[in-house]
Please model this.
Amino acid sequence: MNTDLVVEIDRITKRFSEFVAVSGLSLAVPRGSVYGLLGPNGAGKTTTIRMIMNITIPDEGSVTLFGDTLGGRHHSARIGYLPEERGLYRKMKVRDTLIFLAEAKGVSRAVAGKKADEWLDRLGLGEWRLRKVEELSKGMQQKVQFIATMLHEPELLILDEPFSGLDPINQQVLKDTIVHLSRGGTTIIFSTHQMDVAEKICDHVCIVARGQKVLDGSLQEVKQVHGGTHVAVAFDDGSEAAASILSDPSLVEKADDYGVYAELALKEGVSPQTVLERLVRSGARLRRFERIEPSLHRIFLDKAGPGAADDLKKEPAHA
Amino acid sequence: MHKVWAVIRREFVEKVRNKWFLISTILGPVFLIAVSVLPSLLATKTGKVNNIVLVNEDAGPLAERLRTQLTRTTRFAVTLLPSAPERHEAVVDSLTMSVRTLGIDGFLVVSAATTDSGGVEYRGRNVSSIRDMAVLESALRQTVVVERLNRRGVDPAIVQAAQGRIDFRTLRITKSGATGESGMATFFLGYVVGLVLYMIILIYGMGVMRSVLEEKQTRIIEVLVSSLEPFQLMLGKVLGVGGVGLLQFSIWGVAGYGMVHYRTEILSLFHVPAAAVNAVQLPVIGGTLIVVAGVYFLLGYLLYSALFAVVGASVNTDSEAQQAQQPVMMLLVFSLIVSFAALSDPNGQVALVSSLVPLSAPIIMPVRVATSDVPNSQLALSMAIMLVTSLVVVWGAARVYRIGILMYGKRPNLKEMWRWARQS
Model:
């Protein structure tokens, strides 16, 4: 057992009658890390998080939290959990709601009241503390939910799809808060299928697909292991002329056209120099040509397979 | 325990703060008085005067006597119509027509044979009014009896004296001797006890259901079960809502006691003379009854709120809840209906069995205690069965609840719920 691990999952499996939601998944979350649990919808992220939180019990395997297997509920005072499906008591007053949710985690009433006031002031909801939740706008309710998750200053934050459904202002508020807490030493696990967000915040990632782990490690490791030579190209015009080069299988392994620019994975042994020469000769006017690290998005598509790529485009209703 | 306490406090404070608590606390007794007093009030007071025609076919003084008697009841305005037996058919036809065209309410034919045979016929629109017909029949009986006695030459003074009013009183005898309590008051007490228990168990049981459903609908349930055990949550909810019920019960109890105790003073504000107030006999509410009602409220509430918690956990929307709550409500309604049978025969077979069956016991047993002497052995047996059943049901309900609160989508059937209860 590694004491520097906040969460250690050992080969957990969860079945719902015939359907296997999570199969033999293991992962380790180092203390102080920002850990991204990545995967398409239906990959088993939420089920995994629920097993960490003791909401569902794994059929096989074990979850170790803070060095023991007593479960998330036992440690609820040390954990902040924001589920994917969020809600509050509509008729309850904002401050009372926050105090109750903290008390349910085992925080004393007096401390909860003080912290609630501090947080409400910090996020600009001070005047709303005695209003009923239903009187608040949706964005304000989301802020109240963040506060409920973080009020007791947990050592471990678990956020399930925290950015989904947030307006841009609250996305920023949440991102700032995550960064702030992470600098203060809080370990943060969050799940998402938005690779660009994960790439900006995470230092560790675990990619899951169809209930199984595809790869995990620090962001750096993952990118190194994935290897290959990646190039970003963008054109002012003449991209039609370059199209044949980008789709030449002797040069390019895979190409992702993001619209503004395209990410190319070059074939082994092909130098970026060669590709640049060919592009210049084709008459295309280049705006950008840059050697880059593979994006998490690219790695994800490669590793989680074409089926996963399809899943990414859909937004099926999540259980 | 700290966590359970937090849930109890939330349920209690939020429910008591709600304006519906205030409204139902005030309106509850008003409603109770309305359902228990109004029907009899309506039955006695709304008597509109029935216009009837009394056809006299050579019945002699009987007709005039009957008219006087009926007029005295104030329910009938009688027009005497002398006629002859030969014209019977024609008179009946024309009077029937007049009833149909709403001219009169009905008509009565007395003939010379009436005094001997006792045969009288009434035709009218109000024959379904039990009260009107009873008044009519009673007046007839008296008049015919007087007429018969007169014919046999009995002194009219003796007949007069024989007709003197009879004052029938019923007094209840309990183990401690005669109570001086009237049968009517005892019946009324039993009726109110059954109705109050039914109402309070139903209202607060459904309160638990709504609270469970609210947490499911707002999805706050997931945060809650990540912080505390589902059983702690359900326990806190049941105790918190039950506390509100107990508070309301106590408010009604204290207010009721105060009103009864100071009834002379209160009613004098409405210019009701003290003598009139004291003439109304009130049932004596013994300490045993209060304790028994309290115990059965707690046990019955525990049992039913656990069932309602399962209903709340197994549905997704209010309309689904409306449907799913029916079976549980039927159990309670059925118990209330059986309690009426227990009222008329508190020591009969039906009352005995239903006061032992745990689903109906919380209503029937207190009704029996209010209206008769229940042997201690039966009380002890019933409470023991109740307690064991409640605990088993709470245990089972907690297991179904634990799974149901996280399930969305199709409503589970009984078989699936049974499987949930058995899952570890």
About this structure: The beta strands of chain B are 50-57, 76-83, 106-111, 121-124, 171-174, 177-182. The CA atoms of residues 335 and 360 of chain B lie 5 Å apart.
